[in-house]
Amino acid sequence: MSASGKLSFEVKPGGSLRGSLRVPGDKSISHRAIMLGSLADGVTSIRGFLEGEDSLATLRAFRRMGVAIEGPVEGRVVIHGAGLHGLRQPDGPLELGNSGTSMRLLAGLMSGQAFPVTLCGDASLSSRPMRRVTDPLSRMGASILTEEGGTAPLAIHGPVRLKGMEYAMPVASAQVKSCLLLAGLYADGRTCVTEPAPTRDHTERMLRGFGYPVESAGGRICLQGGGTLNGCELDIPADISSAAFFIVGASIAANSELELRHVGMNPTRIGVINILRLMGADIEVMHEHNIGGEPVADLLVRSAPLRGIEIPVGQVPLAIDEFPAIFVAAACAQGTTVLTGAEELRVKESDRIQVMAEGLQRLGVDARPTADGMIIEGGGISGGEVDSHGDHRIAMAFAIAALRAGGPIEIADCDNVNTSFPAFTDIAGGAGLFISERREI
Ligand code: S3P
To answer: Considering only Cβ atoms within 10 Å of each terminal Cβ, which end of the chain, N or C, has fewer?
Structure first.
């Protein structure tokens, strides 16, 4: 939050989304690029790095551990890798802000270091569950102190010798999987993680890109500790999670036709496209190709009448960050949309079931939260005031909702949009959203 008070968005109703745009780089891939580039031997050159607060928190953490990192300048970063055993003890706790990915992945990596380190976050991150990583890490031999309740700060005490293990994850979480694989780089023997449902596989893909063997079959991912990573070139695609606001926006706003360029189309991330297509969205996938082990495409999205659906449970982990936007699509659809199997939404940057339900209700939508999802009756959205509770994706979802609202929407507490989508208001305004920023005095 800025010293001069919190940021609000004011969005006038109506408008269409038209033209062609590229949203910023993928957040998940940007974090991993900094981590693996820092641990590699040699130089890693990155293009398309997300200059948002979350991935910058990861970048600053590695600088504080002695890694020479040039940039970012217009998405370009050059990392002079320190090697797997070349990190140095930072001179104080690592501040990770709002970023769950930084904290959970670093918990694994730091467990393998020869020095102690403490990981801290903001109020939201300090209330999120960390036992999902500290429990299995302890089984590998790590020594981590949490607050009562299993929350950050995490005090990680090196040096320990980690041992590989076989772990069946109780939740489908890419952060947990990645945390354990990164710890596994430092462990004696093999570390194998089995996931209950497919989750984003950027860590596995990128490790292979750095020349580190990873086996995966039937939801079980294994690696052997003690190898090396070789610096490489990375081209990070645009973040489908940021594109999602525009995919929904162009679908719900009349007379829209919007091209989204160079969007990451990793099959473990495209749940939002699958779900919106089931609802009747008109999304054309063009120029599909592979860049550095990740599929990428341009998308052409046109306005379409949407219908309510029962969201297939198998799509939930593949769209886990996109539900704020999907809920807005559901509010504009004809009929009922039912989401189940998404209790993980309650432990994101905010309780996304509760906060979205409250906001939608304030905008006149019949949205009923359930323990693990939401039931939304499509119809109209009215104008009104909503609070994002400092959750970047909720702020952007309500901004897009104004395209179909009956009056202006004012959204409080929007500073954290900068964690994943700097320049959101400029890009959205350029595409046709009537959005302006206001900072409280
Ligand atoms: C992420 C994994 C997901 C996602 C988060 C980023 C990652 O979290 O919600 O925004 O980069 O690995 P979970 O692992 O908790 O599902």
So the answer is: C
User: Alpha-carbon distance 57 to 64, whole Å?
Assistant: 11
* Whether the domain at 7-25+237-439 and the domain at 27-222+231-235 fall into the same CATH topology: yes
> Which residue, among 397, 398, 330, has the nearest Cα to 362 in the 3D structure?
398
| Average per-residue pLDDT for the chain | 97
Question: Considering only CA atoms, which of 323, 201, 203, 329 is closest in space to residue 268?
Answer: 201
Name the fold adopted by 7-25+237-439.
UDP-n-acetylglucosamine1-carboxyvinyl-transferase; Chain (3.65.10)
Handedness of CA 360, 361, 367, 371 (dihedral sign): positive
pLDDT in tens, 63-93: 999 999 999 999 999 999 999 999 999 999 9
Q: Residue 148 and residue 289: Cα distance in Å, rounded?
A: 47
Find where tokens 């970023």 sit: 99
Cα–Cα distance measured from residue 332 to residue 166, given in angstroms and rounded to the nearest whole number: 45
CATH of domain 27-222+231-235: 3.65.10.10
Ligand 1 pocket residue status of 320, Cβ below 6 Å: yes
E strand or H helix at 34? helix 27-39
CA of 382 to the centre of ligand 1 (A): 32
Active site residue 415: no
Pocket probe mutation, ligand 1, options 31, 98, 133, 175, max atoms within 8 Å of Cβ: 175
Is the pLDDT assigned to residue 1 strictly greater than 60? no
How confident is residue 159, by pLDDT bands cut at 50, 70 and 90? Answer: confident
What confidence tens digit (pLDDT) does each residue in 11-48 have? 999 999 999 999 999 999 999 999 999 999 999 999 99
Residue 3 pLDDT = 52
**Predicted confidence band of residue 440 (pLDDT cuts 50, 70, 90):** confident
Query: Atom 16 in ligand 1: which residue has the minimum CA distance?
Result: 173
When pLDDT is averaged across residues 302-315 and rounded to a whole number, the result is 98
For the chain, give every domain's residue range. 7-25+237-439, 27-222+231-235
pLDDT at 4: 72
Q: In this structure, what is the dihedral angle of CA atoms 361, 363, 367, 369, given to the nearest 10 degrees?
A: -50
Query: Is the separation of the CB atoms in 262 and 296 below 8 Å?
Result: yes
